[in-house]
UniProtKB/TrEMBL annotation:
It comes from Didymella exigua CBS 183.55. Its EC number is 4.2.1.130. One of its GO terms (cellular component) is cytoplasm. Residues 83-224 form the DJ-1/PfpI domain. It catalyses: methylglyoxal + H2O = (R)-lactate + H(+). The lineage of its organism: Eukaryota, Fungi, Dikarya, Ascomycota, Pezizomycotina. The keyword Cell membrane does not apply. PANTHER family: GLUTATHIONE-INDEPENDENT GLYOXALASE HSP31-RELATED, PROTEIN/NUCLEIC ACID DEGLYCASE DJ-1-RELATED. GO terms for biological process: methylglyoxal catabolic process to D-lactate via S-lactoyl-glutathione. One of its GO terms (molecular function) is glyoxalase III activity. Keywords: Lyase, Stress response. This is D-lactate dehydratase. Belongs to the peptidase C56 family. HSP31-like subfamily.
Length: 228
């Protein structure tokens, strides 16, 4: 039977206090979806359910074939998401959970008790827990049943401070993923040699990717961890 993966998208569409749209970042869903959709059964959820907002700036930026085809052929993937709270208590029905990046998750999936509970349940049920770009930020404050932080002592990566600076959004995000994960992991944050370079970190069942360029490799790492 094909493994089952729960993909989690944001429902948040506004960039902090700026009057600018945000959401999820096109290649960070398109690329892992491309790698995994024929080998796994993918279910997509978001806090509010229904349509999850696609960051229009990512449509401008991502002109690769996989992203363009996904945009053209796969609207149903992000327009008909299920509500996240339905999956509480269902970790046993899945093999992995994957959080798609973009700035949206920084606003609605970090201090989100439903999301934190899901991550804890997936982790404690020995499932794969994964995310790319800004989405690893959703892990930083997740506490396990014994009170310890999920990422404590584990190598992790995410969108870096330099990348946020170059994106011009350092003062707009509620916090910087690199700083939060560096602290929560106890100094185990790692990154590519150069900003925007591909970097995937596999810490046992915790899989994180640094940025949009890492999205395909994160999908491949999830596939490998699932043995597909
Ligand atoms: C996504 O698009 C591909 C073709 O590029 C198709 O094979 C697949 O069934 C689509 N999936 C969904 C859920 O629309």
């Amino acid at each position: 039977m094909a493994p089952k993966i729960l993909f989690v998208l944001t429902s948040h569409n506004k960039l902090g206090n700026l009057d600018k749209p945000t959401g999820w970042y096109l290649p960070e869903l398109a690329h892992p979806y491309h790698v995994l959709h024929k080998k796994a059964e993918i279910t997509v959820a978001s806090p509010k359910g229904g349509e999850s907002p696609l960051d229009p700036s990512s449509v401008e930026a991502a002109k690769d074939d996989v992203s363009v085809n996904f945009l053209k052929n796969n609207e149903s993937v992000w327009k008909n998401t299920q509500k996240l709270d339905q999956f509480v208590g269902k970790a046993k029905d899945f093999d992995a959970i994957f959080y798609v990046g973009g700035h949206g998750p920084m606003f609605d999936l970090v201090d989100n008790p439903i999301s934190q509970q899901l991550i804890r349940e997936f982790w404690e049920a020995d499932k794969i827990v994964s995310a790319v770009c800004h989405a690893p930020a959703v892990f930083y404050d997740v506490k396990l049943s014994d009170g310890s932080l999920l990422v404590a002592g584990k190598e992790v990566t995410a969108f870096t401070n330099t990348e946020e600076e170059q994106a011009g959004l350092t003062d707009v995000v509620p916090f910087l993923p690199e700083n939060a994960l560096q602290k929560a992991s106890g100094g185990k944050f790692v990154k590519a040699a150069e900003p925007w370079g591909e970097k995937v970190v596999i810490s046992g069942r915790l899989i994180t990717g640094q940025n949009p360029a890492s999205a395909t490799a994160v999908g491949e790492a999830i596939a490998k961890a699932l043995g597909i």
